[in-house]
Amino acid sequence: MFLGPRPMSLPAGAGVVSTRDATGTRQTGPVPTVRVTAADDHLARITGSNPVMGVAELVWNSLDAESSVVSVDVITNAMDSVDEVVITDDGHGFSTAEAESLFDHVGGSWKRKQPNRRTLNQRRMLHGDKGEGRWRSFSIGDRTVWESITSSGDGNRLVTVSIAAARLDQFEWRGPDPTERPVGTRVTVSAGSRRPSRLLRDDTADLLCAVFAVYLKAYPDAEVSYRGNRLEPDQLILSSVEIPLDLPEEFGEATLTVLEWVKPIERGLYLCDAEGATLHVIEPGIHAPAFDFTAYISWDGFRTHESLLLMADWESEEIGPVLDAARQALRTHFRQRRDEQRRDVVQQWKEEAVYPYSSDPDTAVQQANQAIFNYVAVSAEHALNSISDPTAKRFSLNAIKVAVEADPSSLELVMKEVLALPVEKLDEFREILERTSLASVIAAVKTVTDRLEFLAGLETLIFDPTVAVETLERAHLHRILENEPWLFGEELALHVSDRSLTSLLEAHLQALGRDDLVANQVLDEKGRHRRIDFMFGRALELNRNRREHLVVEIKRPQVVLGRQEVSQIEDYAQAVATDARFDKTTTDWDFVVVSRELDSYASGRANQKGRPHGLISQPDDSNLRIWAWTWGEIVEECKHRLKFVRNQLEFDPTGDQAVAYLRSSYPDFLPDRLARHRGEKAETDGRTPTGDP
Fold first, then answer.
1. In the predicted model, is pLDDT for residue 439 greater than 90?
2. Cα–Cα distance measured from residue 473 to residue 557, given in angstroms and rounded to the nearest whole number
3. How many CB atoms lie within 10 A of CB 605?
4. Are residues 226 and 204 in contact, defined by beta-carbon separation less than 8 angstroms?
5. Which residues, in sequence order, are CB contacts of 622 under 8 Å at separation 6+?
6. Longest alpha-carbon distance in the chain
7. CB 94 within 8 A of CB 102
């Protein structure tokens, strides 16, 4: 299907809608409906799945319109979930004629025609030029309305454009209408079914601060605020350093900017053009314990190869060498920073007269011992420096010295000695090692890192547009998820996988410790045999006489969850509810259908006033509940459960690590694009699966 711009005739369609004019008076009349020239899958791809980056794209549009002040407000409802997101700016806005050219096709942005890639009045460098950013708002919600006001010879004029997620391929517009409102644009995104809870987190403003840090430092006349708080990078930046990257001559020049922050901010490696405008963000892919940082690669090539950035972690030959050079520079930089910190801490201890070495080492053995001591002691810097008594601190450092010199290869001995010090804040690790072995601690850490890599891999399967089109329900997702029951809740055990409702009953009775003979099959209300994807179960922690069963029906990424899928899970629940052989007194039943996206019907059922988000129904307030969840909600919940340990480990798996984990753990259950090694060319490229085997 042709994706480029085409001549447009107005109106391509018309509908009668109710609107408000510039004074707020409700009016009813014909509003032109215009079809957008782009393939449906292309529009779906560029909407994205990250609401914070969706907000960022709308702010970039405001800054490209030369706004001096941009404000982002998040409006919540009575249930404290996101209802609307409103972005307001004082930029130059767009007229009716400009609206037609802005929205009738994807690509061919007006920004491409600007000389030297500068804004309309040459004040700043432009961020985008692909004509796609306005559709990123649908990572936030289901409907977006632009109200843009421009100045004309006889007063200000208002143009209104609206697009709904259900019909991304068309938009409605009206205007120009006279208005007293000042020049600028207001974008209102109605959350609808998406409910982007990520926007309510305390660290969202900090993440946006990181996104715009380089730009706001370059253009101090631009002010951006989020939920009433101005983004002020300078107040959060601990240090800033620029590192020229060592690249082959054909790649030209590139610069790595590393910002360290005074507080934890979600790490990211930002891919920017030569002027510092962010085009994409990926994981840094390095380990740098004790540092809170973001990094920015400024390189013109990212603009040239912008179509490759969504798959940046696959390290194509066009951009891979730049990413490799940046990550190597980051590793070198933070090794140097850690050495600097170590020297500063040691010097502080020397000045306090608590450092256990009175002179420089004379032999290689002494030098090695002292180096190991410095490494171990500085690792416990925060705990040691919390000791106010110099005598206690000196004793603690001497204990570490003794441990290191006694057996520098024994990590467990060193850690036990470090944490056997007479200071309460240093007792925690010692107590852990008294309760369990170091091997158990390592095993627990491996479990967490494996889960984090799996979640990153699952996101690739579900949300990466080039992979998701190949991801099937039974051949891929089902075979993987039956080995990962923790995804739906801790302590869950798999009882049934891809079996009939009769098998569900048998597994249920077995879990209750009953040996009833199942003589008659379980059928739905229409007398049909039905198969379920999974049933998980567990005994409730606070009452071992009660059990919880979770019946899960999954859908592949390309399936939008709607009336048919909701009816399917309701049929399963009804079969259990009406069959007396299923215990509903001491067993809680939850039936869940999962897909990447909900349509308007499913969203309405999943967002009912007075009910938890996702709950479709609970017949007669029974122990039986029916839910509709998105994969994004499940992944976000799992990440939240692992957040504390992840932060302590400072482990953020890269796309490469995630794919490597999937290949190692599930080599036979991956789509072709992930199963083959990077760089290999498969004959199936471009194939779109039509269904599951």
1. no
2. 8
3. 23
4. yes
5. 577, 584
6. 91
7. yes
Closest CA to 119 of 221, 6, 47, 225: 221
**229-230 and 26-35 as β-strands: parallel, antiparallel, unpaired?**
unpaired
Number of Cβ atoms within 10 Å of the Cβ of 222: 20
Report residue 295: phi and psi, to 5°.
-130, 150
User: In which region does residue 76 sit, left (phi positive, over 0), alpha (psi from -120 to 50) or beta (all else)?
Assistant: beta
Report the candidate in 327, 244, 320, 335 with the shortest Cα–Cα distance to residue 288: 335
- Pick from 229, 211, 233, 206: which is nearest to 73 by CA? 229
> Residue 168: CA atoms inside 13 Å, Cβ hemisphere, count?
22
State the pairing for strand pair 269-272/493-500: unpaired
Map tokens 């590793």 to a residue.
Answer: 331
Which residue type, as a one-letter code, is found at position 657? Answer: Q
User: pLDDT at residue 678 above 50?
Assistant: no
pTM comes to 0.52
Residue in the structure block whose two tokens are 């059928």: 523
- For residues 546 and 540, what is the distance between their CA atoms, to the nearest angstrom? 6
What integer is the mean pLDDT of 273-300? 85
Distance of CA 542 to the CA centre of its chain: 33
The pair phi, psi for residue 489, each rounded to 5°, is 155, 145
Burial class (CB within 10 angstroms; exposed 0-12, middle 13-18, buried 19+) of 647: exposed
Task: Give the SS3 label for residue 16.
Answer: strand
Within 10 Å of residue 203's Cβ, how many Cβ atoms?
A: 15
The predicted-structure confidence for 325-354, as pLDDT tens digits, reads as follows 999 999 999 988 888 888 888 899 999 999
**Amino acid in the structure at residue 435:** R
Residues 496-509: tens digit of each pLDDT = 665 665 565 565 55
Q: Kind and range of the H or E element at 282?
A: strand 278-282
Mean pLDDT of the chain: 75
Buried-state track 431-466, b at ≥16 Cβ within 10 A, e below 16: ebbeeeeeeebeeeeeebbebbbbbbbbbbbbbbbe
Contact 535, 507 (CB under 8 A): yes
Task: Establish how many alpha carbons lie within 13 A of residue 194's alpha carbon, considering only the half-sphere containing its beta carbon.
Answer: 27
**How many whole angstroms separate alpha carbon 99 and alpha carbon 418?**
66
